[in-house]
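Session log. Operator J.P. requested a structure for one protein chain; no other inputs attached. Running the standard single-chain path with token output.
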Amino acid sequence: MKTYVVEHLDPECGPWSTLEYITIAQESTDAGAAFCLSSAPLDLDIPDSVKAVRGFNIDHRSVEDVYHDCKDRVCLLDPAAKEELKPADAEDFDVFVFGGILGDDPPRDRTSELRKKGFTGRRLGPIQMTTDTAVRVTRMVIEGKALTEIPYLDYPEIRIDEHESTEMPFRYVKDADQRPVMPEGMIDLIKKDPEKGFGELL
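Structure written below.
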């Protein structure tokens, strides 16, 4: 079984992250994989809507502690990695870790910290993805589809109303209707308060 681990160092779990984690847990479970939040603060208040989702797990220990005896089977999704993720990596890795810049002020580059600890890195291409998109793309590759075979939609425009729209600064997987694949409720969240920056929604 493959495991997808998202490092969550932030003391809160905002509405954006809530929707992402629900989606990642559901999609991982449907694919026969596991999902876990790691490095979560002991006082992190996880919304009931997340806790109720089948397949959601949380571990307050760090990735280094959890996988100290099998580090060679852990893949760090790292924008600075020299190699891109490929289907053959399914044979070499069982755990896929998504670090990112999370939690601290000033921001703490958790991916860089894990890179220095010796975790093997792979990249998903040059354009930033949302966390759920990164996990989705990783799973698609591990299940046999090359990065170049995945349909993407970059910087999609979300229509707020007939007069206003906002451009999402991310790459998404494109669905059969040529729309970005997003967590259920995400577009409503964006429309609800378009004046808020993405950092405030996280």
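Operator note: Residues 15-30 form the longest helix (16 residues).
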